[in-house]
Design goal:
127 residues, mainly beta, six-stranded mixed β-sheet, four-stranded antiparallel β-sheet, 0% helix, 45% strand, globular
Length: 127
Amino acid sequence: QVHLAESGGGSVQAGGSLRLSCAASGRTDMKYAMGWFRQAPGKEREFVASINWSGITTYYADFVKGRFTMSRDNAKNTIYLQMNSLKPEDTAVYYCTIDDDDHGLGLTRDPKTFASWGQGTQVTVSS
């Protein structure tokens, strides 16, 4: 059983930055892709970004390309999402997930595919 814990959310003004973290624990083997989804009030959970185990391959939703950057520190079993140039429409609860069944996170973006989720962290961007 994998445990995922997000942190780093908060409230910022448009144009500001935040850095989200997600620490994974509970398994001895963490060599899996991990990623971020978000869910705004009244909307479906949507894919934001993912990174493979080596950190070489990343995927981003079109609406965050050029603004958000994913990275990971495998020694800490932690992934990061650096969010710059934030917009009010980025307001949502951000969740991390791990692709421990090798569904191809990044190319596969349906949140129903993934079983392990953190509790989420709120990001609020004001105009």
